[in-house]
Amino acid sequence: MRNKLAIVFCVHHKPWLMMSTLITTALQDFDDADLFFVHSIGDGEADHPGYAEYRALITNGRGNPQLSPYDERVREVCCLKRKRVFHLEYQNDHALDSGVWYKFIRSRRWREYDYVLFGGEGVLFARQTLLSSMVSFAERCGVHFIASGHEKRRVPKDIFMRYHTRVEAPTELDRLHDLKIREAFAIFCRDREFRALFDSWRSDFEPETQNHIPDLLSRTELAWRVRARLQKRWGSPYLGSQSEAGMRTRIGQRIPGMMDALRSALRMRLHGWLGDAREPRVPRIFVQGRRQPVSTITATEREGGVRYHRVDSPEWFGCAVTHLMSRTFLERLSERLDRYEIYDILDLPFSGTPLEVIWGFTPAWLGFEKWFTDGFHRVRKHFTTYRREDYPPEMAAYINRYYCGRIRVGWQGDHLKIRALRPDCRHLEELLPAGYF
Predict the structure, then answer these.
(1) Whole-angstrom distance, CA of residue 157 vs CA of residue 269
(2) Which of 3, 22, 11, 4 is nearest to 100 (CA)?
């Protein structure tokens, strides 16, 4: 008997990132999924034969900035108190999260599931109904591929293919990076159908980023701008706690997060009168850092309170490679990867860069529709200020806003801490390790 859903998490470093993901996973109204924690072991400087040219250029120790060492503390974070949890280990390398997905696909472990959700640490399940909605929507509409729209992007071909050498004084490592991007696409172009898509990739548009997430972060534009200004001026409390920041700065840093926690605590007490937090009647998304009604950008469909929209152009992709794929999709993808020996891409340095974009081409390549959802948020940079914000205080604040009235989350060092739960969410105490409390 096949199971309905498997969730594959790439686990690597920074305990608070995986904690934020698992807290929001535990808050889902769908709990019938098998969980695979794939630990990406090592510092990323794997001894692949294809890395020889790369290794020759990093004698000064400065290599791929996307690589970082595995943090053993994440193991304890993933010790959930439930059945159907599996732990795997792959070698950390330049393919990053996409490489983990390809290695999992090569293992054929997905064959026992109708759908497989691939997600990295730090991705928030931003709606309580997300998992049940995705499965229902995919079954009802015959959808085989859903990408996260939290950072939906397209880049002109001529820019992406020389992304690192278009600077004024590119280094030899920059030149190698762009060379490996071209080699990665050449591997996929062994299939003439992919080659046709690659050749049709245009350059007659500007780079564009859309952020499709639940419209629960700020009711008014003024409130959003004030918060952005505060964060830009004061920075993160996490960084302030590691520096010699003065008292005034530390207070300023903590104000936004304190307000989120207080609002969630109050709504928890008044839930009987107020109910759950609701989005505006006309929800908004971010386009190039500015909020606009989603209806002015694309037509959406709703399932269980989650929005979906279809995109035909292959160059649109979802950053952070969070994807739901059906078994039918994976069967077809696996066959192509084997037939054209595309797993060769895992031997290339910097392969994670092109693989992120290639996921956008994959549905059209295999003959499927590509859909995006607004149900995820991989916190990375602020949508308006572009300041990095995937630190413990900000992750806690986002959870408090998306699940306002259900949970109150704080932080302590490199860990998140659940401070309060609504009675109907108390099952988290039985599921999550003691370190979450």
Answers:
(1) 52
(2) 11
Task: Tell me how far CA of residue 87 lies from CA of 37, 78, 83, 84, in angstroms.
Answer: 5, 9, 12, 10
Q: Are strands 407-412 and 301-303 parallel, antiparallel or unpaired?
A: unpaired
What pTM did the predictor assign? Answer: 0.96
DSSP line for 222-280: HHHHHHHHHHHHH--HHHHTTTT--HHHHHHHHHHHHHHHHHHHHHHHTHHHH-S----
Instruction: Say how far apart CA 311 and CA 326 lie, in whole Å.
Output: 18
168-173 contacts, C-beta under 8 A, 24 or more apart? 172/57, 173/54, 173/57, 173/58, 173/62, 173/63
- Structure confidence by residue, pLDDT tens digits, 51-62: 999 998 886 667
Residue 163: which of 177, 173, 151, 183 has the closest Cα? 177
Q: How far apart are CA 422 and CA 272, in angstroms?
A: 11
What is the CA 92 to chain-centroid distance, rounded? 18
Cα separation, 119 vs 59, in Å, equals 33
Single-letter code of the amino acid located at 194: F
pLDDT in tens, 181-217: 999 999 999 999 999 999 999 999 999 999 999 999 9
In a 3-state reduction of DSSP, which class is residue 86?
strand
